């Protein structure tokens, strides 16, 4: 197959049209496979002479990662009927506008849920038991010199863990931490049936009775800055924040101040307000563990994701039900 | 109470004798409390004029951490009847000689088991999901420059985890990792009743069918260097070793060579052959996580330990049954 998509060989002209929507920095690992089944339209490929005419008739978009799908984006593709997403979150979609235009939208569904839950627990153990600090201590040659790593970490078991958002990720976090003897409680849009963990109707009440808050919810208007100064105060001096959701779930400036001043105990952060920018003051703190939005990233997750969006693209063209479709409220 | 033990006030002369046995580097956090109940004999306190006469009649020793109790040690205290240990392991005791002399020996029992199991799982997630590497990447300011952290980690769920030693620590590791969807198998001195995990009669067979080996067993003559070159080869290029037992369970030179050459996939090490010495070549490797023998160290564990040894000292003097006593075979 030719590497440039606009060389319309007899094979490609009969293929179904697929629009690829992505930040330039996202490599589309799946393109070569997709080219065998679809005629790819790529707005980043400026040399494709048929891009503009075809963009008027393209019906389905593969949206790579959290690339924003705005009103402006939608205006460029008037025939769009379906956005197949590849991200667990959906804050990058203008859902109101998609609904108004009758465009259905899918997400990565559960493809990443186990990995994100594993990573959340990894961050929690790391912060509580000081694993990364210990690793720095040994690599820095401090052990023979200083003798002991102090202060000690604290016990994981018995910790009161408040899960914010008991969806596919949060429920998996709960299952894992129960096995460590943690006491789980949660807040969520509504109380879940068949869940024995105590429910709190708001995050402030949850924070008051938690040693650790784990943010697993989607970023929406309602959850924007849900962890504010009040919640951090409620969590208290020994409290820990783990964020594997989205950076904007937290008032980042307040969080950084609280960490710096010891007004909360620690944090494990995989996501930030302005990625890839991370507040540099955190780099010098031993009570934080920082990772570059990698909680979802394993080859196994990508395989599950590829299977899901491949299915959804085929389903779209054969009028079958989509999987992991966002239900408009 | 006076800070020097040999000032024999009327109160102290009537107290029961307790020998403290420790490396000079171990601070005895518990001494001030113990002094209210016992007349402390401390061989490191050279200024105690009654040390030598009293050492002939002392009946019980509190052994702090893994301080060796050798034949030579035992010869110094001819009246010794009981060694109250504070360590989960017992490789630092000359047990044959203790048995011959009719000296009973206790350990830390289960006091540390949850913490060690938590830390083992923390090391596993860290190595598999590259948490410490991610933290170094962010702190080093690499994210905005390099864009992506590569290679990716791999999925925790589905990993075949071989537990070496399914005692109080190993069984807790198994329970935790089941909740992540790992497939657990084990080897142990003998097959455990009422355990559903598959049993392998030797570590080599376990390694062949494992992605991760977690060393949770005691160090004995039989387990010394139980992870040798053959076992590492059986584990293979993607295999991971987690050691929260004792450094000498592993042929450290071979392990370091295998890690360096990529002949195994990675390692999470809390213990080493010659602590606090850690082979420096490991400091430059991204496939290892290193911690300074801290898996047992939380304030909660120390409280549980203090309760246990305090009980055992009282039990000794009142002829009650001891807890966590080593049973001679």
Automatic annotation (TrEMBL), chains A, B:
UniProt domain D-isomer specific 2-hydroxyacid dehydrogenase catalytic: residue ranges: 56-325
Positions of the D-isomer specific 2-hydroxyacid dehydrogenase NAD-binding domain: 121-295
Cellular component terms per the entry's GO annotation: cytosol
One Pfam family named in its UniProt record: 2-Hacid_dh_C
Keywords attached to this entry: NAD, NADP, Oxidoreductase
Gene3D superfamilies for the chain: NAD(P)-binding Rossmann-like Domain
GO molecular function: glyoxylate reductase (NADPH) activity; hydroxypyruvate reductase [NAD(P)H] activity; NAD binding
Organism annotation: Anisodus acutangulus
UniProt-listed PANTHER family: 2-HYDROXYACID DEHYDROGENASE-RELATED, GLYOXYLATE_HYDROXYPYRUVATE REDUCTASE HPR3
Protein family membership: Belongs to the D-isomer specific 2-hydroxyacid dehydrogenase family.
InterPro entries listed in its UniProt record: D-isomer_2-hydroxyacid_DH (IPR050223), D-isomer_2_OHA_DH_cat_dom (IPR006139), D-isomer_DH_NAD-bd (IPR006140), NAD(P)-bd_dom_sf (IPR036291)
Protein's name according to its UniProt entry: Uncharacterized protein
Presence of keyword Glycosyltransferase: no
Lineage: Eukaryota, Viridiplantae, Streptophyta, Embryophyta, Tracheophyta
Record keyword NADP present: yes
């Amino acid at each position: 197959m030719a590497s440039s998509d606009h060389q319309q060989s007899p094979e490609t002209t009969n293929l179904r049209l697929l629009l690829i929507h992505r930040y330039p920095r996202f490599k589309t690992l799946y393109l070569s496979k997709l080219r065998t089944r679809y005629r790819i339209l790529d707005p980043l490929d400026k040399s494709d002479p048929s891009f503009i005419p075809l963009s008027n008739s393209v019906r389905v978009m593969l949206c790579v990662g959290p690339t924003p799908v705005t009103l402006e984006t939608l205006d460029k593709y008037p025939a769009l009927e379906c956005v197949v997403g590849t991200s667990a979150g959906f804050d990058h979609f203008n859902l109101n506008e998609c609904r108004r235009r009758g465009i259905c939208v899918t997400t990565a569904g559960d493809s990443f849920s186990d990995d994100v839950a594993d990573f959340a627990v990894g961050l929690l153990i790391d912060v509580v038991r000081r694993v990364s600090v210990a690793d720095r201590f040994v690599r820095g040659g401090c052990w023979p010199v200083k003798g002991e790593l102090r202060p000690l970490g604290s016990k994981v078991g018995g910790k009161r863990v408040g899960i914010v958002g008991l969806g596919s990720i949060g429920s998996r976090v709960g299952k894992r931490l129960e096995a460590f003897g943690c006491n789980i409680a949660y807040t969520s849009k509504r109380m879940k049936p068949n869940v024995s963990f105590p429910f709190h109707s708001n995050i402030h009440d949850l924070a008051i009775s938690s040693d650790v808050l784990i943010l697993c919810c989607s970023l929406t208007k309602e959850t924007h800055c849900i962890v504010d100064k009040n919640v951090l105060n409620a969590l208290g001096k020994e409290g820990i924040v783990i964020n594997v959701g989205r950076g904007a779930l937290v008032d980042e400036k307040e969080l950084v101040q609280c960490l710096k001043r010891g007004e909360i105990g620690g944090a494990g952060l995989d996501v930030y307000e302005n990625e890839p920018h991370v507040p540099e003051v955190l780099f010098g703190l031993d009570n934080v563990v920082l990772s570059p939005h990698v909680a979802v990233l394993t080859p196994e997750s990508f395989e599950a994701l590829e299977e899901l969006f491949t299915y959804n693209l085929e389903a779209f063209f054969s009028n079958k039900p989509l999987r992991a479709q966002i239900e408009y409220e």
